[in-house]
Write a structure and sequence with these properties.
This protein is of the alpha/beta class. 46% of the residues lie in helices and 9% in strands. 46% of the residues are buried. GO terms for molecular function: oxidoreductase activity.
Amino acid sequence: MFMKYALFPGCKIAFERPDLELAMREVLTALDVPFEYLSDFSCCPTWASVPSFDIEAWLAISARNISLAEEKGLDIVVGCGDCYSVLNHARDMLKREEWRERVNRILAKVGRVYRGTTKIYHIIHLLEERKIKKNLKHRLNGFVAGVQPGCHLLWPAKIFDAKEENPFFPERLKKLVEAMGAETPHYSRLEYCCGNHIDIVDYEKFLDFVQLKLQSLKEEIDPDFIVTACSTCFIQLDEGQKRLKRLGRIDYEIPVFHFPQLLAICLGSNPEKVARISSVDRSKIISEILEGRE
């Protein structure tokens, strides 16, 4: 890993949940992880867009994004599972000389070149439990958290530089949340997909995915809140359960946090800034976190 990182917020965080980006910035700053923001980044582009109909165009867009960090000698840090997956898949495919040459012919038209020197990390890969414990202003002792790593951070493990030892029993997010004092019991559908992208073609099937995940969490561990590594999982689980409740398919709500939001709050950031936007109300659980249970 390089000593400094290019923060890649992605389009969903930047346009739908800007408080998530602020949380990432505050966490990286508080824990002394050097980063800079490159204003020329575009969409990664997400799986449901360009990669679904034009592989060459997808690789060119991803390679352009990566080349911006390469030019500055930086690795990339993301908070979105889609971005992590798409950019890593692009890096893997661009190891093939044929694709790299085709893409660089396209990039040459805008004065750029892809070299393959920059690596892609998720923010959970850069944070140390020891440093988190040392800097906490509020601990999560007495809280039970349901962790949602997100499938795009887990598979296919062979293409990732930072990977879980066993993607069927992911530990990274679990250990970070436990470092903050919370319990993170195992539940049977831990590694299940949140239903992302299915909502585009079959919204009812998407709701089935969300309901299955929520039922597993509620019935098996009854968490105080859900913590996601992936920003898309956060949006899907937060918005999906509101729809399920309106339809009468569930009779409960579980507050959802993107991990950097929860950590930023525990490091002393203002919740009104770093955890402002959600469908499920989080004010009660945030007050309990600030007051402490033990």
